[in-house]
Write a structure and sequence with these properties.
505 residues, mainly alpha, Serine Threonine Protein Phosphatase 5, Tetratricopeptide repeat, 3 domains, two-stranded antiparallel sheet, elongated, binds iron/sulfur cluster
């Protein structure tokens, strides 16, 4: 079995392990070990949380420091889909050429975004406090794609279409934010592809390089592959019939080149204008997909933008004609555009919008009883989406739970001004008055709630409780009768209530 087949088998096994892990997690409730993801960097530095993802991140970085980007070659689940796409295209007689472009600066933008997210978490949640919880996945799971459709779209666009248009490992070379991070550590790696005997210059290594590195040139110049793009896939070693190459220990790239290697290629297939079009389309689509579809879908957006730009450039380069003429002439152009646009529209309408995500973030603080932080989140959200009643209602609840009753009343009154017959809001407002000790105002709101919804048992119960507090048992019983299914249950409640009062006395 050649090295490429072995690699694809290993990458396939990784995906099988992931499926087993998901099944264990969701079907059998085995939740001791959480997600394995390089997003662990956010858990670790953003929250001080050492969970499975953070441990995974540390291990991958440590491996890269010594052995180079072995993880990208042999350990990443998404590498499998890209290699699968390439093989499928080869089977169909399509051999996509590897396109080099400085548009891969987009990867650095995404990496920067991840790092700034860490600081954003510091800002929102405070300075991280170190703690260990290997099974904790809370921090990253809201962002992970759950829908099979989204996963299918990732495979279709980020693997198949991307590889078809930009060549082998296009996602790794243009979008993945972990590539520049791992490339950083790759610079000091000792184990790399090295020359062990004379080279004939046949260039077979270069033609077979998964990442489009000019291997024969690097070997001639440095006697080793020093490019930070090298993922240690060993494809070049397998392709060299002369036995010139081996994966060996030696001095690191920095010792050889004395310059730090970035991923941005020195030579590009495009001129500066084309590069700008690529970067613009990639970033702008990524930005809007993140805003409206969630942060994980950023990568889907970047692939859409880049693919669209490449198609556009291909057509324009070939014909040197205007876009209008191109659209009319090329049937594939409107077809691909339609697929991309309809997918975008479909996703747009189906997934949680930005305001819902803000709401979720605030609710996370509420769950942890960190009400002041919830107030900050909801206030920002209200400023951004003033007409969103759910967010304002959550803000009112956060004020109530934080004991800031005046502001809670203001928020509930604002909501009720637009929706005066909302029984739940009336009931909540009544509870704020009750907590404030303004029993009469509370009863008034509860009674209004009952007028608008005579089945709202919470309001009956709340009035009953206030009358009990006031010592008016007759009135209390009148309202409590609407809460309990039987008289027995109600008297049991009254006994418990008076029992606890006696205990207090
Ligand atoms: S660059 Fe990213 S997607 Fe590609 S193999 Fe590495 S971690 Fe996976
Ligand atoms: S395949 Fe081997 S012999 Fe041929 S150029 Fe590459 S390193 Fe040299
Ligand atoms: S240089 Fe060799 S090991 Fe590195 S990416 Fe290219 S083919 Fe793989």
């Amino acid at each position: 079995m050649n090295i490429n087949k072995k690699r694809i088998l290993v990458l396939f096994s990784i995906n099988v392990f992931i499926i087993i892990h998901i099944l264990l997690w969701y079907t059998y409730g085995f939740r001791k070990v959480g997600t394995f993801s390089l997003n662990g960097i956010v858990n670790l530095f953003g929250f001080g949380l050492l969970n499975s993802a953070a441990v995974f991140f540390i291990i991958v970085v440590a491996v890269t420091v010594f052995f180079g980007r072995v993880f990208c070659g042999w350990g990443c689940h998404f590498a499998f889909f890209q290699e699968l796409a390439l093989r499928a295209l080869h089977k169909c007689g399509i051999r996509p050429s590897i396109i080099h472009s400085k548009a891969n600066i987009i990867q650095y933008v995404f990496l920067l975004k991840t790092i700034t997210a860490i600081f954003e978490f510091w800002h929102i949640y405070g300075f991280p406090q170190f703690h260990i919880n290997i099974g904790d996945t809370q921090v990253i799971t809201p962002d992970l794609p759950r829908s099979p459709v989204i996963i299918a779209l990732f495979i279709l666009f980020d693997a198949f279409l991307f590889v078809y248009l930009m060549g082998s490992r296009a996602f790794c070379r243009y979008v993945c934010p972990w590539a520049p991070l791992l490339a950083l550590f790759e610079n000091v790696s000792f184990w790399r592809i090295r020359k062990i005997r004379e080279c004939t210059g046949c260039m077979s290594c270069t033609k077979n390089c998964t990442m489009g590195i000019t291997v024969h040139e690097e070997i001639a110049q440095h006697s080793a592959v020093v490019s930070a793009s090298c993922i240690r896939c060993l494809s070049c070693k397998g392709a060299c019939q002369n036995g010139t190459l081996d994966y060996k220990f030696g001095i690191n790239a920095l010792s050889v080149t004395r310059t730090f290697r970035w991923l941005i290629p020195k030579v590009s297939n495009y001129n500066i204008y084309a590069e700008l079009i690529l970067i613009f389309c990639g970033i702008i689509t990524a930005f809007y997909t993140q805003k409206y579809l969630g942060s994980f879908q950023t990568f889907l957006g970047a692939a859409w933008g880049l693919c669209f730009a490449v198609i556009l450039l291909k057509i324009l380069e070939r014909k040197r004609i205007t876009i209008t003429e191109t659209v009319l002439e090329k049937r594939s152009f409107p077809a691909v555009s339609l697929i991309v646009l309809s997918t975008l529209v479909w996703c747009w309408g189906t997934f949680a919008p930005h305001e819902t995500r803000l709401l979720m973030r605030g609710n996370r603080f509420m769950d942890r009883m960190e009400y002041e932080k919830a107030i900050v989140t909801f206030t920002n959200a209200v400023n951004e989406y003033p007409s969103n009643k759910q967010i304002r209602s959550s803000l009112a609840l956060a004020y109530k739970n934080a004991g800031n009753y005046e502001k809670a009343i203001i928020e509930y009154r604002t909501l009720l001004a637009e929706d005066p017959e909302n029984a739940v809001l009336r009931n909540n407002l009544g509870t704020v008055y009750y907590r404030k000790g303004e029993y009469d105002a509370a009863i008034e709101e509860y009674k209004k709630a009952i007028v608008f919804d005579n089945g709202l048992t919470a309001a009956y119960g709340n009035i009953g409780l206030i009358f009990l507090e006031k010592g008016n048992i007759e009135e209390a019983v009148y309202y409590l009768e609407n809460v309990f299914a039987t008289e027995e249950e109600m008297y049991q409640y009254l006994l418990t209530y008076f029992g606890s009062k006696q205990g207090q006395i």
